[in-house]
Amino acid sequence: MAWRSWTGWAGVGWGGGMPSDPSYGSQWHHQKIDSEGAWEHTEGSTGITVAVLDTGLNTTLTEFQGRLVSGYDFVNADADPTDDHGHGTAVAGVVAANANNGLLVAGVDWKCRIMPIKVLDATNIGLYSNWALGVNFARMNGARVINLSAGGWTADTALTNAINAAIAAGVIFVTITHNHSSGTITYPGTLPQAITVGATERNDTRSDFSNWGSAIDLVAPGREIYTVSKTGGLTNLFGTSFAAPQVAGAAALLLSINPDLKQAEVSALLTVGAEDGVGDGEDTAGWDQYFGWGRLNVLNSILLAETKPGIEVLVDGRMRLSWQASANAVAKEPFTIEWREEGTGWTSIASPAISYGATTEWIDDGTETGEHPVLAAGRIYRVGIGN
């Protein structure tokens, strides 16, 4: 649980805004997911590593210069994860291409480290056994985010165990619904513990190729995504493969603000921050099987991560906690509240009567804590997110 006392957290890495990369203007997805607003709060952190499990990476490209950590090639069983297809380089570009370097495009996270792990071959196909090895390698070598833009039709125990071990170790795992125009999401996107991402168009409708179903968490732009080609040029591609790395990049930005965040907390921040009801009739209020909780909005999620609840004493002695929350919080209701008095442990409110609106608030009148706060000296509160 990511807790926010009334003193809150501060943001890091202010700056951001619109980068100067020559093809940035073609990257419409950044405007759609409000990357620019997020970059005003954080551009990322060199202390966060994102593992891209894919076809590898062209590690010689300037767009990744100064950002790489050692990876591995599980397809050919060597330490050279060179990309012989192009998919992995393009995915990594969406996550983390260098910004403001006078070249090509900008990634979602400008400072994170990139760990290229080759688990897909020259035909963009791979074995679950190698995917599991790749997940384990990422976990054991310090990755905090894993992006796996791949999936299959059956489940696999070894891969599930590897993903569970990574999540338990504090790694954020992001994957795809896949691209079959199907109501069946592929594995491991079917895992409830995964953050599973579908794709949308410029007008926020669901991309016709994007799979849907009960396991979807949110969506992100997935067509005409301008990124880096294997040879170092500019390419534009489509697919959930290029929606998921926007979410992985957003996860890395969230970790740059609070590195203690875990999978459930990052999932809550992303889904509560997502914009709901912006698509067509399929995009119904709250969660739905086509859009999940909505379309990624990185700024909303960053603002939630920086939540600073205020506290005030009302005239009758009741305590009022108030904080800002995105509109989607009304449907998701992700917040939890704990309180304690001097010398005691934290007590959770099982179902706090939180009022959602322009300002989200909770008032302690003694009903839920068992004692009117005016009679309780030194009561301390904290607000958490992650359900």
Strand order in the largest sheet: 3-4-2-5-6-7-8
* Helix share, percent: 10-25%
Secondary-structure element order, as H and E? EHHEEHEHEHEEEEEHHHEEHEEEE
N-to-C terminal Cα separation, in Å?
8 Å
Percentage of β-strand residues:
15-25%
SS element count, helices: 9
Segments where pLDDT lies below 50 for 5+ residues?
Answer: 1-14
Question: What would you say the CATH architecture of the largest domain is?
Answer: 3-Layer(aba) Sandwich
For the largest beta-sheet, the strand count, sense and barrel status come to: 7 strands, parallel
Question: At the third CATH level, what is the topology name of the largest domain?
Answer: Rossmann fold
The count of domains is: 2
**Counted beta strands:** 16
Q: CATH homologous superfamily of the largest domain, by name? A: Peptidase S8/S53 domain
Look at the helices and sheets and give the structural class: alpha/beta
- Mean pLDDT across all residues, rounded? 92
Which CATH top level class of the largest domain fits?
Alpha Beta
Radius of gyration: 21 Å
Q: What spatial form do the alpha-carbon principal axes imply?
A: globular
